[in-house]
Amino acid sequence: MLGAIAGDMIGSPYERDPIKTTDFPLFQEESTFTDDTVLTIATACSILRGLDYGRAYKLIGSCYPNAGYGGSFINWLLSDDCSPYNSWGNGSAMRVSPVGFAFDSAEEVLVEARKTAEVTHNHPEGIKGAQATALAIFLARTGSSKEAIRAEIESRFEYDLSRTLEKIRPDYSFDVSCQGTVPEAIIAFIESTDFEDALRKAVSLGGDSDTLACITGEIAQAYYKHVPAEIAGEVRRRLDSGLLTIVDEFNERYEAAS
Fold it and tell me: Which letter does DSSP use for residue 89 in this model?
């Protein structure tokens, strides 16, 4: 889960000020956690405590009302109505990473990923984005090669992962959809040489940078088996202590054993 949070923090300064290069400082004064981190940790809390995903998102999300949620989500968060709102946004994919670490079969991962999505993002593309991300994480942590991950995600979800970042980058722009974020984030992982390189490549696309890097970071952590110590240290220093407690508990129970 630190991989997702690192991506969120590193990408956060570029969400509204996109760049098209991998040459940038990893952490700046304004690098901070956003809604991607808050809701990822809420997913972890749900798994740890046996809470309904929607309830966990409302409980933890409402503690951080200024985290940068999308308009539809903030309306849902602050409302007494718990009904989903048919979203295809990339929020369902950004928050799903704990599922890829906590469950022990592809079938379980797909079922749980659907559950995390459909409390808000019950549009088919919203569910698909969460499932594709969680499955990529599961495959990465259980030893699949990049080519095997590419083939499985393409086959199940019909995402085009044959494109290259070099071809995508020039015309790519801010996109909050699952279908316009998840494939690009997976491609950034596939083309990476290590964890840091994966995050740099995701941010360099110049899109919804924190969410792109969050999704890429989730998969990269699972595949490369670690988050570099200097990056992990910065993440821990910048993370709210209450959220960090949940991260540490989840890591001890699931990620350390992966």
Answer: B
- Beta strand spans in the chain (E): none
Number of domains in the chain: 1
Residues facing residue 83 across a β-bridge: none
- Contact at 8 Å (CB) between 185 and 131? no
Nearest 10 degrees: Cα torsion 119, 152, 135, 199 = -110
pTM: predicted TM-score of the whole model, two decimal places: 0.97
Domain that holds residue 188: 2-257
For the segment 194-249, what is each residue's pLDDT rounded down to a tens digit?
Answer: 999 999 999 999 999 999 999 999 999 999 999 999 999 999 999 999 999 999 99
Asked if residues 34 and 210 have their Cβ atoms less than 8 Å apart, the reply is yes
Q: Which among 157, 226, 151 has a CA at the least distance from the CA of 190? A: 151
Contacts for 214 with CB less than 8 Å, ≥ 6 apart: 4, 5, 7, 8, 11, 36, 37, 40, 94
28: number of Cβ within 10 Å:
13
Report d(CA 198, CA 175) in Å as an integer: 19
- Write the pLDDT tens digit of every residue in 239-257: 999 999 999 999 999 976 5
Q: Look at residue 219 and give its three-state secondary structure.
A: helix
What is the Cα–Cα distance from 87 to 101, expressed in whole angstroms? 25
Task: Decide: 227 and 247 in contact? Cβ < 8 Å.
Answer: no
- Give the containing element (helix H, strand E) for 60: helix 53-61
One-letter amino acid at 169 equals R
Q: Please report, for the domain that includes residue 33, its CATH number.
A: 1.10.4080.10
